[in-house]
Amino acid sequence: MAEQKSFSSRWALMFAMLSMAVGTGSIWRFPRVLATNGGGTFLLPWVVFLFAWSTPLIITEFALGRGTHAGPLRALVRLIGPKFAWMGAWITFVTVAIMFYYSVVTGWVLYYLGVSLAGQLAGVDSQQFYDQFVAGPWPLLMHLVSMLLALVVIYRGLGAIERVTTLLLPSLVVLVVVLAIRAVTLPGASRGLAFMFTVDWSELANYKVWLEALTQNAWDTGSGWGLITAYAIYMRREDDSSANCFMLGIGNNIVSLMAGIAVLCTIFSIMPEAEKTIVGAGNEGLTFVWFPRLFAAVPWGGFFMVLFFAALFMAAFTSLISMVELAVRGLQDLGIKRRRGIVLVGIVGLLGGVPSALSIDFLHNQDWVWGTALIVSGLFFAFAVVKVGINDFRKKFVNVEGNYVPIGRWWNAVQGFLIPVQGAVLLSWFFWQTYPTNEAVAKSLKIAPKDVTPAQILWEWARPIAVENTGTVLLQWAVVLAVFVAANRVLGRLAQEQPRPE
Question: Which listed site, 215, 229, 391, 493, has its alpha carbon 20 to 30 Å from 30?
Fold first, then answer.
């Protein structure tokens, strides 16, 4: 049988794209961020940035993948020349670095799905259960299982990706809808709906709400990751990429909203007094500690807990598949045959996830470093468009034959001005947030706050070995960038030598 070269239909393409975008950021991060930023007040800037950040970058990635028929590395080489190969290598590497620990998180969800199916979460101390789990061998084992499952799908080719995503995405949506319906029928769920959809107009003056909304859009739609570029390679010529871009962003956010309804209505119904404690628990605490407690208080809670972890696993696994595909595509961009590339990605991926599987602090560090680096990846895409000429790129790559939804000049302004400004502001805010207070430094050094010096504060902010500060980000970024810049001539030459696939 001949290898499948493109998605069999537009819907198959959209199922794959949405499966890539709808991940853990949509289902476990969005409800927590929504709750901690004013509920309905947060939704307004969240929608604004869907069209001011996510959708324009999605359009860029779709156009690049379709127009160059290459992954991010070779696409940028073809677009703006071989001396910028390091930018494409950065985009690919950042997502691969995320893949290392994302497979660990996917394994966590798979484990919790298994134990919830077996009824082992009933009547246990969920905090103690979680602590014992992350300290034991299961995270490593489940990381290996998750990576191997994703590798099997990629090894079997585009047809397998299509079959898996076409099955899992509708199943995920059905489960999220069922969970949302169950949540809104609980006593007191109306308080959760009111919180989600009531706008406190005075809070819109709070800049943090806007920055959190921009952050959520940057992390949960897949824009700027390079994943869309890798999947857009398999588009059929007759597919309308512009319409697909809007469908992708809006579809992802609809699933996020449904997940928010399911989570927040359950919280407000079962233990409204614990709302701040729950949403302040972080992504993992909310998912693996508080949810078992919440479901324990719901009729048929064990059944709905299985549905929740099944939906979360589907979201995580299909996103992991797209990350493995991008990693393989990155090697293909350099001339490595696909089958050999899959083997190499498998070896590196299995080994690369081990530190995060064994250390929760290492996982948090990598999430902070490379999650933040995604903003830089988005800026590199925007730079490439500006470099080649925004209007020329729009005419040559975006508004091509087959696109029934033309993209107007508004996109020029967003690409050339808004995205660079948003990226710069977001990175500045990320780094400023890690600047420590006197009290935090005093606690770390075990001294009185009055004895803390400015030099000690600066060192805590900039020291290179830390879990989450600015120094660890800048050090790791500098190392990776130095390697790619040093290897740029080789990367550019290899990317140029590869023929364009038919």
Answer: 229
